[in-house]
Structure prediction request, 446 residues.
Amino acid sequence: MARLDLLFRARRVVTDAGEAARSIGVRDGTIVAVEPLEADLAAAEVVRLGDDEVLLPGLVDSHVHVNDPGRTEWEGFASATRAAAAGGVTTIVDMPLNSVPPTTDAAALRVKRATARGQAYVDVGFWGGAVPGNLRELRGLHDAGVFGFKSFLLHSGVPEFPPLEPAELADALRELRAFDALMIVHAEDPHVIDHAPPARGASYRDFLRSRPRGAENLAVAHVIELARRTGCRVHILHLSSSDALPMIRSARDDGVRITVETCPHYLTFSAEEIAEGATPFKCCPPIREAANRESLWRGLADGTIDCVVSDHSPCTPELKRLDTGDFGLAWGGIASLQLGLPAVWTEARRRGHPLTDVARWMAGRPAQVAGLSGKGRIAPGHQADLCVFAPDETFVADQDRLHHRNPVTPYHGRTLAGVVRASWLRGERVDIDGPPRGRLLNRGEA
Ligand SMILES: [Zn+2]
Prediction:
């Protein structure tokens, strides 16, 4: 074999075949060799992992709100992608809302790309948005390279990204079916929530009652039936209610093209343990009871849930209403991009899951759902996006030491297992103090 640029030698490498001692050869940013550990290979640079380290595929986080431009005080491309790299995430896909303009037409995508250019420490892709009145923009956005389209069925939290009415969602799915694009949906039913008691004050229990499981269950059922009717591919975002798992399973058995993600916070925390006024835990749909969390873990174990992605949705400390702890008024969104891998690993290993499962949930499947066929796996022909992970080292999460813009996270003070020692992007070690080297991706380009 011709000389390699880079060679990793590690006692523990996570591949599709499981965990094994391997040598991973890289040329021109691409994995070209997956060989036994002591294989006779030569390279310009050799990286030998420590006995306490595991080589994982770089994570693909397909659910990140960068909020830039327009709400840059909430987050930005440089801070978000630094946090990603520090957390072992080598690709993010940015959500179309909370930035201004929202990514609902090709011109807005150009604005977003111009903003991100020169600031990305990891690779960045973009979701488009489906909102009332932009049906005719969807094809142009698709052609301009978005990975798919996000829609809401209820108020999104920002006025410039309104929800679709049921008939509008059906029209959008029919349109997307014509060019086989993916619709990703925030599935909570507005009418259920309108009739639930409103969230007020510092009581988490009251907040939870304001966003009942029934709102998610009904919305997921609605999305399933529209996907069945139109044939469009759909993806359920941030599933919290485990009640919806059996219907997702049965729809898939029927041939409905549906995938689903959940998030580290639904797999880590429980409503019972959230203190009065602890608004860093507020997100929508909400973190539910411990029994629900365990059902979500079973959904991961049996393959019903495809992906675990962050839904990193930060804001300023003021908007989290940390002073009053009012769950009704606080922004709903959890900041966790840098901590997703240790958070999930901490809970996964407690339940007997190996790192191969975590890599599938957080790298392999999200890459597939987002159409990134060259990412998310350590395999020949894939990009050399890698994470050096020390799974047995523990640390206490400290919000002041995270790289995202505002020092707020519900993981603050929590002991987590697993330290990211390095991230590699297309065969180069990511240096978050150096110049950014991430690329802005078009759909299917990587
Ligand atoms: Zn989100």
Notes: Residues 63, 65, 95, 311, 313 surround zinc ion (CB under 6 Å). The two ends are 25 Å apart (CA to CA).
